[in-house]
Amino acid sequence: MCAMIDSQSAEKISRMKKLRRTLSESFGRIVLNVFSFLSQICVTKMSTRNCQGMDSVIKPLDTIPEDKKVRVQRTQSSFDPFEKPTNQVKRVHSENNACITSRTCSAGKESPKVRRHSSPSSPTSPKFGKADSYEKLEKLGEGSYATVYKGKSKVNGKLVALKVIRLQEEEGTPFTAIREASLLKGLKHANIVLLHDIIHTKETLTLVFEYVHTDLCQYMDKHPGGLHPENVKLLLFQLLRGLSYIHQRYILHRDLKPQNLLISDTGELKLADFGLARAKSVPSHTYSNEVVTLWYRPPDVLLGSTEYSTCLDMWGVGCIFVEMIQGVAAFPGMKDIQDQLERIFLVLGTPNEDTWPGVHSLPHFKPEHFTHYSPKNLRQAWNKLSYVAHAEDLASKLLQCFPKNRLSAQAALSHQYFSDLPPRLWELTDMSSIFTVPNVRLQPESGESMRVFGKTNSHGKGVPNSKH
Fold first, then answer.
1. In the predicted model, what is the mean pLDDT of residues 339-355?
2. Going along 109-170, which residue ranges are E strands?
3. What does 371-400 look like in DSSP terms, one character per residue?
4. What pTM, to 2 d.p., does this model score?
5. Quick one: CATH architecture of 215-455?
6. Same fold across 95-113+130-210 and 215-455
7. CATH architecture assigned to 95-113+130-210
8. Which of 80, 132, 215, 255 is an active site residue?
9. Domain ranges for the chain
10. Strand pairing partners for 163?
11. What is the pLDDT of residues 139-195, one digit of tens each?
12. With 70 as the cut, is the pLDDT of residue 254 above it?
């Protein structure tokens, strides 16, 4: 009798697991399509104010009706196959290190070659959306959930980065994969990584990205001691440009760090790795505070705040800005969250209710646990900020402990630090590269040739090595 009961129980469990797997796979396919559709219609319906200088972006959390508030709690689950624990000093490159250079042709205009391949009269020709449409050239990295390959499209011959996510038999499609794909399908901007294709099979979900040969972390490691001041300005401008675009579309990146900022051979910077990104199209009262790599995590999140908005990303911008100029991480925590906060307070001052209203209500803020520090001028901590006009002022407006005091991406683009750039940069369309403006190009870093950034034309500006 007991054996019969055990057999029946095992059979029921087996059926339930199979049903769960089937539902998960079906849900994944449906959500990818639905999210893509919703992303197109929700953009125009969002209006809010949050960070300083930003209008029509994120609705203040305290204005959301009580019956509309939804509590969301998630632990960090990044796809980054190279990421190591965030309290380690050694930086580790993400799977996007080698993701992405070639840009697609003009939207809606396929080349004759592509049309021939996609023609119904050529059923054996490779097509987009099929696993056999891409050739794997070399493995770039492997982690617990994903493997990244450098690849080549058999349809148009372009290099691609293939992010192959292994689907767990029990769990089906990871939600972070669905979120990353659905968000990227709706984002079309020169400074955001382009998602070419999605291939969903029973065993894997493959995201096909444009291929870019390096990232900001590798670039800074290659040029220690700080980057050329003009290059810092152009890279930061592109970062702010990409962030302004997603913030206006109600999207937070939530994992800004040099490893997730890709750089093409022409100097184009692209936001990548949206596995932790979050669309705020549905008002939520709280978010997980387990976001953003430790060195680039703002003090409000370190202290346990789960109510944040675009200000979260802007702290990361400030940290990356300082690192590009100074050549070292702004706040390289060595041990844990306590150590990270001490490093921040050492420069910016230990907060209190006068400098940061509401700080005492944050879960992890215990005044007796922190040394009392007075705020310093940023140039005392990072002397190279004083070498560039208006750099210290911009950094100080980004690195504000009180979240609402941080400059927004849109406001930062109008800061005096960028006043010597050509006015045409502010007139570009979303898909236009800043390097289409005459005389805008990266300068050679110490000991390197301009060949690194591609050929130059008669106007002296960088020219991509591949067609856009």
1. 96
2. 134-142, 146-153, 159-166
3. -------HHHH-GGGGGSTTHHHHHHHHS-
4. 0.70
5. Orthogonal Bundle (1.10)
6. no
7. 2-Layer Sandwich (3.30)
8. 255
9. 95-113+130-210, 215-455
10. 148, 207
11. 987 766 778 899 999 988 999 999 888 887 555 566 666 767 777 788 899 999 998
12. yes
